[in-house]
Amino acid sequence: MDMIAGLIQTSIQAGGVLALAALGETLSERAGVVNLGVEGLMALGAITGIAVVVATPHPMLGFVLALAVGFLVGCVFALGTVVVKANQVLCGLALTLMGTGMAATIGRAYSGMPAPATFAPIAIPYLSDIPLLGRAIFTQNILVYLIYIVLPVVLHYIMFRTRHGLNMRAVGENPAAADAAGISVQSIRFWYVAAGSALAAGAGAYLTLAFVPSWSEGVVAGRGWIAVSLVIFAGYRPLNAVLAALLFGLITSLGFVGQARNWPIAAPILSMLPYLGTIALIIVPVLAWQRMRRVMAAPAALGEPYFRDMR
Predict the structure, then answer these.
(1) Given this model, what pLDDT does residue 204 score?
(2) Mean pLDDT, residues 163-186 taken together
(3) What pLDDT, on a 0 to 100 scale, did the predictor assign at position 284?
(4) CA nearest neighbour of 24 among 40, 1, 8
(5) If 0-12 CB within 10 Å is exposed, 13-18 middle and 19+ buried, where does residue 294 land?
(6) Against a cut of 0.85, is the pTM above it?
(7) pLDDT score of 288
(8) Mean pLDDT, residues 174-202
(9) Which of 40-49, 182-191, 252-261 shows the lowest mean pLDDT across its residues?
């Protein structure tokens, strides 16, 4: 029973990293911009969180400043992809290389250093006393509750229950029609790319301040790319993205449990499980029946810069 409780608890914590990054990428892609710089943004957020808590013992300040760093870097990325209309794939790859390189350089002074302050678990009264599930689900840190409950519900409501969300989705589907209706395509894309980048950097800070409370080069370990694939599998919907991230958290935690309990499986194989799962989730929509492919279809204008017809 303790093993099951620990497995559930670790799954939620591991999935939180991917969920926050996937929510950020969902915002960007729903507006029509592919951001392949999630890996670099997460690395920048991770080192920002560690650097702040080393200077001041306030993990929330580290998380907020990581959001700010991601927002500023996202504005630069949006300037290139939305305003200048440069190739989104190339800009995203450049952001990944730049972000991971900068984080590695800055992080040399913090390599192997444990975070002096982390997000402490918060037990919800009564619910945390439930046998088995209480300790696993209702004794998490505040970021877990924010990522799994508050953010996806708020984003889902904004996207699918408000006029602003309709405008945002229209920009991602048909920017020419949205522009003709008086919607500012450039403004919506710019700010949603910046907001999505902030959440991606926040996922990096969550990684080093709550899940793996230390910094080392390569600590992000491809999670940014997994988050991008989760958005595709989730059909570009916030609630689905969180559920998909939770599934990946379970796969990751199975690898941890297997190594801890000396399962007769090579450790590299167990470490590969999340990446094998990513490949499987990318293949699923391709092999799925027609209706599922329609539901999971990407925004029609995804990855395409918008040029206003001046004729």
Answers:
(1) 96
(2) 94
(3) 66
(4) 40
(5) exposed
(6) yes
(7) 58
(8) 95
(9) 252-261
Whether 158 is covered by a domain: the verdict is: yes
**Measured between alpha carbons, how far is 28 from 34 in angstroms, rounded to an integer?**
7
Task: Please choose, from the candidates 123, 140, 141, 124, the residue with its C-alpha nearest in 3D space to the C-alpha of residue 59.
Answer: 141
Q: Mean pLDDT score of the chain, rounded to an integer? A: 88
Instruction: In whole angstroms, give the CA distance from residue 257 to residue 243.
Output: 21
Q: Does residue 307 form part of some domain?
A: no
- Domain count for the chain: 1
The DSSP code sequence of 232-282 is HHTTT-HHHHHHHHHHHHHHHHHHHHHHHTT-SS-HHHHHHHHHHHHHHHH
Contact 11, 219 (CB under 8 A): no
- In a domain? residue 303: no
The pLDDT value recorded for residue 260 is 67
CA 299, 300, 303, 308 torsion: positive or negative?
Answer: negative
Residue 73 pLDDT exceeds 70: yes
In a domain, 121, yes or no: yes
- Residue 261 domain boundaries: 2-295
Structure tokens at 299: 């925004």
d(C-alpha 207, C-alpha 292), whole Å: 32
**Residue of 42 and 117 predicted with greater confidence:** 42
At 263 the pLDDT is 72
**For position 290, what pLDDT does the model report?**
55
Query: Quick one: which H or E segment has residue 154?
Result: helix 151-161
B/e letters for 242-274, b = 16+ CB within 10 Å, e = fewer, are bbbbbbbbbbbbbbbbbeeeeeeeeeeebeebb
HSE-up of residue 278 (Cα within 13 Å, Cβ side): 17
Distance in angstroms (rounded) separating the CA atoms of residues 287 and 36: 24
